[in-house]
């Protein structure tokens, strides 16, 4: 079963909103500054593009978590690279992804929370869609196909005449007659 555009857009919006919100929250809790609105919007656009590309069908929890780890790393670098004063305070001037354990733990915690939440939601929505699909098929199938009896198949067979010895044989098969 593949997702149509309205469902893909709804799933993408949920994925991107939760991912960027938790990334910004984790970034602030890890010791960084709150991202500027334009930076958060840029992160939201990037995660939305990634989500729209991947939400065409049901995804497993490991796949969701793998994508989330990549998104969290990308959002962390985006949020960390917004200003020079932030870079010197945060320690990104030389190391790039070499961050403190606090920042790493908060981003990983955000990833795990987001992954659990989204994988549960993913399983629930696809289960619901499969149930609805089955019921719609059962409701629409009798109306869509009229119940006309199919024509009897044409069978062409050759009639074989009985052998002369079998003409007067009586075969009495069946249940015994009552007494």
Describe it.
The chain is an all-alpha fold and 179 residues long. It has helices spanning 5-29, 37-54, 61-80, 84-90, 92-95, 101-144. The protein is built from 6 helices and no strands. Helix 1 crosses helix 2 (37-54) and helix 1 packs antiparallel against helix 6 (101-144). The two termini are 65 Å apart. The model is unreliable at 85-90 and 92-98 (pLDDT under 50).
Largest sheet: none
Distance between the termini: 65 Å
The rounded Rg comes to 33 Å
**Structure annotation, total helices:** 6
Give the class from helix and strand content and strand pairing.
Answer: mainly alpha
Binned strand content = under 5%
Number of distinct beta strands:
0
Q: How would you state the average pLDDT, rounded?
A: 76
What's the helix-strand series?
Answer: HHHHHH
Determine the fraction of residues in helical runs and give it as a percent range. 55-70%
Q: Globular, elongated, flat, extended or rod-shaped: what is the shape?
A: rod-shaped
Query: Which regions have little confidence, pLDDT < 50, spanning 5+ residues?
Result: 85-90, 92-98
What key phrases describe this protein's structure?
single chain; 179 residues; mainly alpha; rod-shaped
Task: Explain the layout of strands and helices.
Layout: H1 5-29, H2 37-54, H3 61-80, H4 84-90, H5 92-95, H6 101-144
Helix pairs in contact: 1-2, 1-3, 1-6, 2-3, 3-6
In a few lines, what is going on in this structure?
66% of the residues lie in helices and 0% in strands. The chain is rod-shaped. It is mostly helical and 179 residues long.
